[in-house]
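Hey,
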Amino acid sequence: MDTQHHPLISPACGTSRSLSSWHFGVPGRGPKVYLQASLHADELPGMLVLQHLRQRLQAAEVAGQLQGEVVLVPLANPIGLDQTWMQLQMGRFEMASGQNFNRHYPALATWVRESGHDVADQLGPDAQRNAHIIRQAMHAALQRHPPTTELDSLRHTLMGLACDADVVLDLHCDFEAVVHLYMEPECEAGLLPLARGLGAQAVLLARGTGGHCFDEVLSGVWWQLRESVALSHGADFVVTHPIPQGCLSSTVELRGQTDVNDALAAQDSQAIQTFLTHLGVLSGDANTSLPALQCQASPLAGSQYLLAPCSGVISYQKAPGDRVLPGDVVARVVNPLTGQSQDVCSDTDGVLYARHNLRWTTTGMELAKISGQNVRRLGPLLGP
C-alpha cells in the first residue's frame, strides 16, 4: 500500500489541511476502482467500511491477488470534519461559502472540448484507445483550471484521483435508512452486482440530477461527450470513433448515520471485495453467487418526498425498508399544545428507503423518501 498526501489551498494564515489516499496495485495494470468515504463529513459508515476494506486489500496485495488498481480515500472531507458547533458535526455544507460539499463539481465534458483542446480531434476507431485519450484530456483540463479556494482544491484533488477510474464508489449515508444506491442509467447493468452484494433495497436512476454531484460528473462525462460530439461531428462520427462508457459510478448510501459498527462494516467490505473480484481487480472466482436483488431499479424522479404539513412531534408509523402502498400512514405529526395530529400518507407504491432522524419538525421539513416507478418530479432532483 502506498500512502499519498495532497495539500489543499490554505484558507488563512497559519492553517493548512491535506487529503490522504491509499493506493493498491500497479497503476495502468488492469481496471482501476476508486472509493471515497464521508464527502459529507457527518456521514461516517463509509469511514469504517474503508478501514475494513484496507485490511482486506493489504492481505490481497501480500498474497499477489491484485490484478488491477484500487484507490481509497478514507476521509474525503477534512474541511467538513473540522466544522463542529457545540459538539455537532456540520459536515454537509462548507460554512465559509454555504456550498454543499457534494455539488458543483467541474463540467468535465465541456472542459475537454475547449477551443484548442478539443478531445474530439484526437479520437480514432479504437474505443479502448479513445478512453485512454479522454482520461488524459480530463487530467489536462484539471491542470488548465487550477483551484482558487480551499473548497475548490478539495474538489479538484478528488477529481484528479478519480477521473481515470473505471469504477467510482462514493460512500455516504442518510439520516435513518436502508442501503440504497444512486446512479445514472448507463451504470445500472455494471453496478447491479454491487447492489445485490450490499443488499440494496432501492436503486435510484437519474441521468444527471442538476447538482453536478461528484459521482454523476464522473460517469456523465462519457455519455455527455458522446452526445456533444454527435452534435458537432454527426452521428456517424461517434459510430466510427466510439466513445465507451468509461466510468461506472454510484453514490452508495450505507444505511443511516448511527449504523456505524464493525459487524456492518465487515459485511459491507466483504460485499465490495466480492464486487472487486467480479470486476477482475482481485483474482478469484468471479462467479461467486450473489444474493438476489431485493428491489427493482426505479427512477429517482419517481421517488416521493414526504413533507411535514405542520409543526409538531413526529411519530413514525413506518420504518426504513417497509413496503408502503398509496394511502398508508407513514408518520403522524402531533401538536403538543392542542393534541391534534395530522397524518402524512404515501401516495405511491414503493419502499420507504430513508427518513429523518429528528422527532420534531417544522412546517415543510422533509420527513421520508419512498421509491416509486412513475415519474412525478421534474427539474433538479436533489436539494442544494
